[in-house]
Each structure stands twice: as structure tokens, then as C-alpha cells.
Design a protein that fits this description.
- The complex is a heterodimer of chains A (132) and B (392).
- The model of chain A has no long low-confidence stretch (mean pLDDT 93).
- Chain A contains 1 helix and 8 strands.
- In chain A, the strands form 2 sheets. In chain A, strands 6-5-4-7-8 form a 5-stranded antiparallel beta sheet.
- Chain A has 132 residues and is mostly beta strands.
- Chain B has helices at 27-41, 64-71, 88-100, 149-163, 167-181, 195-200, 228-231, 279-284, 302-310, 319-323, 341-344, 351-362; strands at residues 9-16, 51-54, 77-80, 107-114, 203-206, 208-209, 218-227, 239-245, 293-295, 375-379, 385-389.
- In chain B, α2 (64-71) links the parallel β2 and β3.
- Chain B is globular.
- Chain B has 12 helices and 11 strands.
- Chain B has 392 residues and is of the alpha/beta class.
- In chain B, the strands form 2 sheets. In chain B, strands 3-2-4-7-1-8-11-10-9 form a 9-stranded mixed beta sheet, with helices on both faces. Chain B has a two-stranded antiparallel ribbon with strand order 5-6.
- Classes of the chains: A mainly beta (132), B alpha/beta (392).
- Chains A and B meet through β4, β5 and β6 of A and α4 and β5 of B.
- β4 of chain A pairs antiparallel with β5 of chain B, so a sheet runs across the interface.
Chain lengths: 132, 392
């Protein structure tokens, strides 16, 4: 059993995201009326208030919008230093996740997603520099 | 056009405990000391206090009913806010509205907190960071993204990269707060901080260093709010609530950024403050240039940059230059947080700033007293604001 910190809290709105992630797919809700892709998950489109959406598969490509390096230890499961980045995804939303193997991080650098298995139940989307 | 409650209410009493780490004291004992002090300062009998606003309650503070029962207040108006620091301005506004609406004559607004009881902010014992969909400051602990400062560090990296600002420039903020605190006997951190000291201090969540993080404090503050008419009879000069605007929130907002920065889900776009951002000046019927000093929620250094830009004291990306050369330090072009702020005086969420504003407007700020102090502004990077005025 992994440290429970590594298991995201889930509810009715967010569970599908993690179930797709467990299957190795990065999906977010796309509004069926205005096309807006939203994150975090929610029951209605924050742009047009439509309640119709689909879990659209995303490219997994994005660019680094912000990043932090933890130098102090806060949680048993995470040994510093480690990097967490805010990734502006091609489809629009910003997703925060671990960023591995960065030689040098600059704003706007291209990254791509991969999945890290935490335990049988959970896989987390992660990011790494894209070979482009 | 001036707002309907412009100068309708005033602060007539201030009560404070010392600021520090007081493992031997309960939040109720500190709340009691602050309330007794404020009621005495206002020249009131305790029976005259008929309203209470608690910011914040359980688990860090004491809930409103416990305050009333255990400390002996009998009120006809009681409210309490979410257990986070960002509601300081909003709580004072609500107290003023309750007075103006006739729900109470004298509202005691109380903050009593004991942050020293937390083992580590950002550690596992702070459950609200681990809620579904992320924490209230952009946390995602399953990636190790934890602690209230995480969202501020993340937005700071965006700001630094986008505007070519440097970490040396970020150091100007805590250095200025420390210079204010040197003049403040109440401040927890009074040792001078130089740029070399700042750069030599360790990173906590890079790009933020130890001096970029708020203090962890215990203490209490109580302010008494009443009508401007009643305030005219108070023993100390009344401090009028001239202008106010509420917290801004929405899909384009993130609490640790100003609009347009591109933090979290914000669009990254040009930012020029709009009438929506600047409503408080119209409410108070003043110009921004009339402001003698600015007070802001500085739990993390970059939040000061965001607030200065949000209220248009400088342009987008210009806050680092604005803060350079002592710009926000004592005697600067716009002194900011003359008490030393959350970074150097204490973390009372901003109640310590409001108390300082009252002292400055009464002319009792001692060594820190501003030469000109007629109009002071509280304004946070998340958009709420108050303008406090000496004259009506």
C-alpha cells in the first residue's frame, strides 16, 4: 500500500479523471455546447453553464507555465529536491504535476505526459521534457 | 460615485495581545485579553457590545458561541468566517454592514489564533489541503505540492519568467518589511535583513526562501466597529471606514495572483486594472494618489507585487522596480505594511495590519508614525480593499 498522500481524494465529479488515468488515459471534460475544456472537474461548464460534457482524450502535450522545486521536506512520501510544474495543456487547462528529468526549466518549454503507477488502484499523470 | 456606506461606520477600539509563540495560552484567553482591551480602549462597558464577528473559529480559533459563553458577551448579532486568513477585509466590511443595517450598535471583530499548535503547515495534519480537487491555495499533495506557499511559489516562477524579474528583486519585499519591523516593538522579527542575508537564506519552495514566508504566530486582535455618530463620542479619534470592496473570485482569479498573470487556470494576458479592480477609490470618493500608505496580505513576498499591480500603484510587471531602493520601506514612495507585515511583525492574518492602520490614523504609531497619515488603504492580491480615513 502506497502512502495515502499519493492517493488523490476523489468525489463524484473527479473520480472519472482518476479512473481514466488508471487506464493510462489523460481525459478532461469538454463542454458539448461551447467546446471549453475544463479543469478541475466540475458539474457544469464555467464558461457557458452547460451541463453536457464528454471526457475528451487529451494529447498529453503542453508547455511549462510555472514550476517549483521543493527544498524542504513536508511529506514522508516526497524526498526533496523534487519539481512540480504547472503545465498549460494544448487544449487549454493548466494541470499541476510532477516534472521529471528536467535539465533546465524555462517557461514555455514543451513537455509530454506519462503515467506513474502508485499502486494497483492509482496511476498519476506526470510530465517530462518533450523530444521536440 | 461615493459608496452608500462611505464614512457611515468607524473603528473606535483596538485590543491586542503580544505576538509570539505562546504554548501556555489558550485561544480563548488571548481572545478575552484582546476583547477586554478593545472595549476599554473604546470607553465602553461590556454590556454595550451587542455584536460579534469571529475570524477565525475552530480548529485554529474559538467559535463564536464559545467566545460569548466563556468570555461573557451577550450579543444580538454573531457571525464567523471560514478558517483562512483571507477574510480580514471582508469580515470588517460585514461588521460595518451589520452596524449600518441596525443589527448591532457595537460589533467586536475578533481574531485569536494559535498557529504554533500546528506541527508543520503543509504537513499531513492540515487536512483541507488534501480535499478533493486540490487545496485552497493550489495544493496537489499527491504530487508533493503542499503548503499554502506552494501556490505563491508557483505563481512567482511565472511572474519572474514572464517579466524578467530577479530573485534579488523579490528580496526587496521581505527586506522592506524587516525595516518597518525594526521600528516596531511588537514585531517578532526585528533583526535587520540585508540582501546578502536574503540570498544566503535557504530555499523552502524554490523560488521562495525562508524570509519570503510568513511568520507562524500566536496572538489576538479585537476591533470595535460602530456608527460614525456614536464614534464621535469615543475617547480616541474615530477611524472611519471610507471605502470598501469585496474579495474578487471567478474562473479568471487565483487567490495568490492578480488577474492576467496566468497562474492556475487564469489566462495569461495583459493586465490593466479596470473599474472592477479599482471600485474602492470611487466608493471612498478619493484618488489613488491620496493614499498615504498601503497595507496588504503579505503571507508570501510575491503577493505584495501582485497587490501593488492590482490596485495600479504601478504597471503590469513593474512592481519589482517600484519596490526597489526602499520604495515600500519606511520613507519610501509608498510605505507598505508599516507594522512589518505578516513577514516580520506577526501572522495575525492582517488584523495586525488593521490595528496598525488605526494607530497610524490616530497618530499613536510611535517611531513608525507616518508624516502624513490621513487616508490608508488595505488591499489584497485577491482583490478586497478597505480605505480608512482620519476625517469623515
Amino acid at each position: 500500500m502506497a502512502d495515502d498522500i499519493r492517493l488523490p481524494a476523489m468525489d463524484e465529479d473527479t473520480r472519472p479523471f482518476w479512473e481514466y488515468a488508471r487506464a493510462g488515459e489523460l481525459r478532461m471534460q469538454r463542454c458539448l455546447d461551447c467546446g471549453h475544456v475544463r479543469w478541475p472537474p466540475g458539474p457544469q461548464c464555467p464558461m457557458c453553464w452547460s451541463t453536457d460534457s464528454e471526457w475528451a482524450r487529451l494529447s498529453g502535450r503542453g508547455r511549462v507555465q510555472g514550476w517549483v522545486t521543493y527544498r524542504r521536506r513536508y511529506l514522508e512520501a516526497f524526498e526533496p529536491p523534487y519539481v512540480v510544474a504547472a503545465i498549460r495543456l494544448e487544449e487549454g487547462p493548466t494541470y499541476q504535476a510532477g516534472l521529471v528529468d528536467p535539465d533546465r526549466i524555462v517557461k514555455g518549454m514543451p513537455v509530454e505526459s506519462w503515467f506513474e503507477r502508485v499502486d494497483e488502484e492509482v496511476q498519476l499523470p506526470m510530465f517530462r521534457p518533450a523530444d521536440r | 460615485m461615493a459608496g452608500p456606506l462611505r464614512n457611515a461606520t468607524a473603528i473606535v477600539g483596538v485590543g491586542l495581545t503580544a505576538y509570539g509563540r505562546f504554548p501556555e495560552r489558550s485561544v480563548l484567553s488571548m481572545a478575552g485579553e484582546a476583547i477586554r482591551g478593545a472595549v476599554a480602549d473604546a470607553g465602553l462597558a461590556k454590556e454595550q457590545v451587542d455584536g460579534l464577528f469571529v475570524n477565525i473559529g475552530y480548529p485554529l480559533g474559538a467559535d463564536y458561541d464559545m467566545v460569548c459563553e466563556r468570555l461573557g458577551l451577550r450579543v444580538r448579532y454573531a457571525m464567523q468566517s471560514w478558517s483562512h486568513g483571507r477574510f480580514v477585509g471582508a469580515c470588517l466590511q460585514a461588521a460595518a454592514m451589520a452596524v449600518a443595517a441596525g443589527l448591532a450598535d457595537y460589533v467586536a471583530v475578533v481574531c485569536s489564533v494559535k498557529y504554533s499548535q500546528l506541527v508543520q503547515l503543509g504537513g499531513k495534519e492540515r487536512p483541507d489541503a488534501f480535499r478533493v480537487g486540490g487545496g485552497p491555495h493550489g495544493e496537489a499533495p499527491h504530487y508533493g505540492l503542499t503548503a499554502p506557499g506552494s501556490g505563491a511559489a508557483m505563481s512567482a516562477s511565472t511572474y519572474l519568467a514572464r517579466y524578467g524579474a530577479t530573485e534579488e528583486q523579490l528580496g526587496d519585499v521581505p527586506i522592506a518589511m524587516r525595516r518597518h519591523a525594526e521600528r516596531n516593538p511588537r514585531a517578532m522579527l526585528r533583526e535587520p535583513l540585508g540582501l546578502d542575508d536574503y540570498l544566503a537564506s535557504r530555499y523552502i519552495i524554490e523560488p521562495l526562501r525562508r524570509p519570503d514566508f510568513s511568520l507562524v504566530s500566536d496572538g489576538a486582535c479585537c476591533l470595535i466597529v460602530t456608527s460614525a455618530e456614536r464614534a464621535a463620542d469615543a475617547p480616541s479619534p474615530a477611524v472611519h471606514l471610507a471605502g470598501m470592496q469585496g474579495i474578487r473570485s471567478g474562473p479568471d482569479e487565483f487567490v495568490w495572483a492578480r488577474p492576467g498573470l496566468g497562474a492556475q487556470q487564469q489566462p495569461e494576458e495583459t493586465f490593466v486594472p479596470s473599474a472592477w479592480d479599482l471600485a474602492v477609490y470611487d466608493y471612498a470618493d478619493i484618488a489613488r494618489d491620496d493614499i498615504d500608505a498601503f497595507y496588504t496580505y503579505d503571507a508570501f513576498s510575491p503577493l505584495v507585487w501582485y497587490a501593488l499591480e492590482r490596485f495600479g500603484f504601478c504597471g503590469e510587471g513593474e512592481a519589482p522596480a517600484f519596490c526597489a531602493d526602499g520604495g515600500i520601506a519606511p520613507g519610501g514612495r509608498l510605505p507598505v505594511n508599516t507594522n512589518g507585515g505578516l513577514l516580520a511583525e506577526a501572522y495575525l492574518m492582517g488584523w495586525n495590519h488593521l490595528a496598525e492602520m488605526v494607530f497610524q490614523l490616530r497618530g499613536t504609531a510611535g517611531e513608525r508614525q507616518l508624516a502624513d497619515s490621513r487616508l490608508l488603504q488595505w488591499g489584497s492580491c485577491y482583490g478586497d480593499s478597505l480605505i480608512l480615513a482620519k476625517e469623515r
